[in-house]
From TrEMBL:
Coiled-coil ranges from the UniProt annotation: none
Organism name: Paucihalobacter ruber
InterPro entries for this protein: Ribosomal_uL4 (IPR002136), Ribosomal_uL4-like (IPR013005), Ribosomal_uL4_dom_sf (IPR023574)
GO cellular component: ribonucleoprotein complex; ribosome
Official protein name in the record: Large ribosomal subunit protein uL4
Gene3D superfamilies in the record: 3.40.1370.10
């Protein structure tokens, strides 16, 4: 699959980038995508939720009324969950929501997500670029040139570039990652996937194993 390479002004450079069919043109596996996205979102959860149970409530331990003869249900503690101010019954406890997926499934999920974007013509290949210093307006000008300033976009770089990363950090609709940080969720969450030329080799080598 060949895609035109654009410059930072949104103009065709006249060159073509070759996208591997083994990565960008496979039959998407929807279940693999579902599991990988589910794992990503589960890993974002802190799992620190907690409510007090009856043994953690401060209160009297005396029996609040006699056992029989009241005509109502028996009750032994004011800390019971059936009373106002009592402990919560079956409340949330701290837990770890993460779960394991094997590497082959995660690799298949990412290839499926990239193939979905390729099928939708949502992939843009951009020539390598850099900024002299971090400036948001420089990054915004690229978004406008590519006509994606009003869309969610994900820029994939070949390696860490602080000037580009810091220039995009204030923009809610755009995110910059390296090829090694690419995830299924981030691919699908973006309307446009912008791949810098130097990132292509890293993506294909990571996913062609």
């Amino acid at each position: 699959m060949k895609v035109a390479v654009l410059d930072i002004n949104g103009k065709d450079t006249g060159r073509k980038a070759e996208l591997s069919n083994d990565v960008f043109a496979i039959e998407p596996n929807n279940h693999a995508v579902y599991l990988d996205v589910k794992q990503y979102l589960a890993n974002q959860r802190q799992g620190t939720h907690k409510s007090k149970e009856r043994n953690e409530i401060a209160g009297s331990t005396r029996k609040i009324k006699k056992q029989k003869g009241t005509g109502t249900a028996r009750a032994g503690s004011i800390k019971s969950g059936v009373f106002k101010g009592g402990g919560r019954m079956f409340g949330p406890r701290p837990r770890n929501y993460s779960f394991k997926l094997n590497k082959n499934l995660k690799r298949l999920a990412r290839k499926s997500a990239l193939s979905m974007k390729a099928n939708d013509n949502s992939i843009v290949v951009l020539e390598d670029f850099n900024f002299d210093s971090p400036k948001t307006k420089n990054f915004t000008s690229i978004l406008k040139a590519l006509e994606i300033d009003n869309k969610k976009s994900l820029f994939v770089l070949g390696g860490l570039n602080n000037n580009v990363y810091l220039s995009s950090r204030n923009l809610k609709g755009s995110e910059v990652v390296t090829s090694s940080e690419l995830s299924t969720y981030k691919i699908l969450n973006a309307n446009k996937l912008v791949l810098v030329e130097s990132a292509l080799e890293g993506i294909e080598s990571n996913l062609s194993k």
